[in-house]
Each structure stands twice: as structure tokens, then as C-alpha cells.
Design a protein that fits this description.
The protein has 206 residues and is mostly helical. It has a domain of 88 residues: Ankyrin repeat-containing domain (Serine Threonine Protein Phosphatase 5, Tetratricopeptide repeat), CATH 1.25.40.20. The chain is 63% helix and 0% strand. The chain contains eight helices and no strands.
């Protein structure tokens, strides 16, 4: 149930700091990603710096990068309120420090604009780590693709070699058969049997 001011039970429980009520609401089917005009439950917990509720919501399946209608994310909400521990937790759970909202503004931009040095430092450290991990993943992907290409090329070469070998054997068999036929024809003209060592009468028989 959502009130006309955009509030709803789960958000109210978070803002009141009633963790037990939040847990009961979630257990009874409260939408962990419900997004009203005031945002999601995760955004409310982030803005309040309530790390216990943040953990509960994330463990219950809250989407960390979902945006409100105004483009706010949970991380952006925590940054705006200078909630350092909430920022740290959200970054640790995978929130992107550099992902821009629909207006092109990222959490890093917000921290820089509001002159929040500690939060800005956290975001920049996370950005560097994220960039390094992305580069490593890209490198691993390229190496995996290279290994697949090498394996495919080796398989293709082995198949081509087998086909060439089979063709060579067939051609050799054809040549042997042709030579055998020519030899048999020649022996027949000479009156020589393959079972004898020479022409009939060649051994001196009268």
C-alpha cells in the first residue's frame, strides 16, 4: 500500500529504524524493489545511512543499481547525504561509482560537486579497482578467445591432414590397382602366370 505522499510501510519502517518490522514486512511479501515517487527501500536506507537495513534489503534481493524517476540510485542517495559507511557497503556489494544516471550524472560527479572528500576518495578508489578488474576480465576473455581460436585451428589442421592422408591412400590404392592390371595384362601376353617364376617352357622342359 502506497500513500499519496509516496511513502509505504517498508519505507516507513526503514526511516523509523525498526529493523524487526522491516524483516517481518519482507517475510510477508513486501516488494523489496518497490519504487515510489520517493524511491526504493534501498534508497531510503542508503540516505539514512542504515547499513543494517541495507544488508537486509540486499540479501532479500534488492536491485542495487535500480533508478528512481529522477535518476537517483541507492549509491547516489548515500553520497548526497554523505553517508560514508553506506557508500562503503554499497560499493562492496557491487554498486557502480561511475555509472551515470539518465541525466549523465554519476555518484563520483555528485561527491565532487558537493565537495565530499572522504566519499569522493572512496568512490575513486572503487573506480580504480573496478577499472582494473574490468581490464583483467577483458584480458582473460581475450586469452580465452585466443585459446579457442588456436584449438579450432589445430582441430581444422588435423582434420585436413586426415582428409589428405585418406585421399593419398585412395590415390595410391588406385595406382597400385592400375599397375597390377597392367602387369597382369603384360604377363598374360607373355604367357606367364603369376604363380610361376618364368615363361612356360623357360625352365627347359621339352
Amino acid at each position: 500500500m502506497e500513500l499519496t505522499n509516496g511513502s509505504y510501510p517498508l519505507r516507513a519502517a526503514i526511516l523509523s529504524g525498526d529493523g524487526e518490522c522491516c524483516r517481518v514486512l519482507l517475510e510477508h511479501g513486501a516488494d523489496v524493489n518497490h519504487c515510489s515517487a520517493r524511491g526504493t527501500p534501498l534508497m531510503a536506507a542508503a540516505a539514512a545511512g542504515d547499513c543494517e537495513s541495507l544488508t537486509l534489503l540486499l540479501d532479500s534481493g534488492a536491485s542495487i543499481d535500480i533508478e528512481a524517476k529522477d535518476g537517483t540510485t541507492a549509491l547516489a542517495a548515500a553520497v548526497r547525504e554523505n553517508q560514508k559507511e553506506a557508500v562503503r557497503l554499497l560499493l562492496r556489494r557491487g554498486a557502480s561509482p561511475t555509472k551515470p544516471n539518465k541525466d549523465g550524472v554519476s555518484p563520483v560527479d555528485i561527491a565532487q560537486e558537493r565537495t565530499l572528500p572522504e566519499v569522493y576518495s572512496l568512490l575513486m578508489q572503487a573506480s580504480i579497482t573496478h577499472a582494473a578488474e574490468e581490464a583483467l576480465r577483458a584480458s582473460d576473455q581475450r586469452q580465452a578467445e585466443a585459446r579457442e581460436e588456436i584449438a579450432a585451428a589445430a582441430e581444422k589442421a588435423a582434420k585436413e591432414m586426415q582428409e589428405e592422408l585418406a585421399l593419398s591412400r585412395a590415390e595410391t590404392a588406385d595406382r597400385v590397382a592400375a599397375l597390377r592390371g597392367e602387369t597382369d595384362e603384360l604377363l598374360k601376353r607373355l604367357g606367364i602366370s603369376r604363380d610361376l617364376k618364368g615363361p612356360k617352357g623357360l625352365t627347359g622342359a621339352a
